[in-house]
Task: structure prediction
Amino acid sequence: MVRLSFRVCPLAIVLCVVAMTASSLFFNASSVYAASNVVLLDNHSGYLASNGKYHVVGEVENQGTTAAWNPWVYIRFKDSHGLNITSWTTSVMLWVILPGRKLPFEFELYDADLSAKVYSYEIYNITFSDTFDKPLGLVITSHGWSITPGNVTVIGTVKNVGTEAARNLYVACTFYDGDGRVVGAESVRVVDRLDSQQEASFTIVEDTGPGRESLYTRYEFAAECNEYVLVPEHPSQTFLTILIFTLTAFALIKKKGHQQT
Result:
């Protein structure tokens, strides 16, 4: 099965950048006690893969007012009697989560003997730290995917719309089933350096395991480099409201400046 690709409207990119930047400035200026707040979303899942390893996939969201840095997810595995088998931690894919953004995580329990004993799992803690917001400067300009037995392949292009070169650029992809549950996640390093206004292609291959590919119904992107994060593909009503508010404020300030001169 092949899904068609699409291209992003340049005007939408500009609107998203302005809205998200305005959002960041608004929160930073008005929140004296601003803080990040990374929480686990209730759409994670676990499964025993065909290679005998148990996997846990999901995503976290920053519901705070400032950016969060490098969240770690703590997972406890239990047997059929509810007894603890082992506990591990795993980091999310990418590093900085802006307010209102999500990032996926994926963990594979490498010990097949322990994996065979897993009856359930529990995500019991998330740690993170506050950090400065990263500017928006990356755009997924086209993408598409194909599904074959045991694999999902996503191809696309990412553009640096910022003014500086993008270094150490990664793209992550979160896969969902028809109910919005996370069924897979994968990331790839795209390039070491991408100059301003340049594009680079990427390919993400997700090993679904035999028979699981039918669960994959849609996907979402995240991207980050040392300098920028991804412009959202679908700006929310909140961002559009902030955009209108910001443009109105700029107009009033400009008008006031003209009156004073």
Notes: Helices lie at 10-30, 112-117, 237-260. The longest helix spans residues 237-260. The radius of gyration is 20 Å. The domain at 38-130 is CATH 2.60.40.3230 (Immunoglobulin-like).
